Amino acid sequence: MLKAFEAGDADAVLARLTDDATWWVAGDLPISGDHDKAGISQMVTGIAAMAAGPIKFTPVGFTAEGDRVSVETESEADLKNGKHYSNKYHLVFEFEGDRISRIREYTDTKRVHEIMFA
Question: Domain SnoaL-like: where (predicted)?
Answer without folding.
Answer: 2-102
